[in-house]
Design a protein that fits this description.
Length: 96
């Protein structure tokens, strides 16, 4: 019997700020919680200034938990080349 231990990183997308190309207006969309104190308490990694296309491609390849409503909202936000500021919560999990 062979047991291998593998450590994987899981990401939970918490919040994203969308910047409209034309008006430069910022909109923030929250995935799981709109409680900013929770965002501040979490260990956040900030990924900034990525296009929505690149964002989707990158996170499709990694283990990210994104609610469907959040994804729909993100896709409806506007031009695909718009920039996003993404906050993710990093968690390490152990799988046997």
């Amino acid at each position: 019997m062979n047991i291998s231990t593998k450590s994987e990183e899981h990401f939970t997308l918490l919040s994203m700020t969308y910047i409209n190309d034309k008006s430069q207006e910022k909109k923030t969309v929250h995935n799981y919680s709109s409680d900013e104190s929770l965002l501040k308490q979490s260990k956040l990694q900030i990924i900034s200034e990525v296009s929505i296309d690149l964002f989707l491609e990158t996170f499709k390849l990694s283990k990210v938990l994104i609610s469907l409503n959040f994804l729909k909202t993100m896709l409806l936000l506007g031009p695909r080349k718009s920039l996003v500021h993404v906050f993710v919560n990093r968690k390490k999990s152990l799988s046997l």
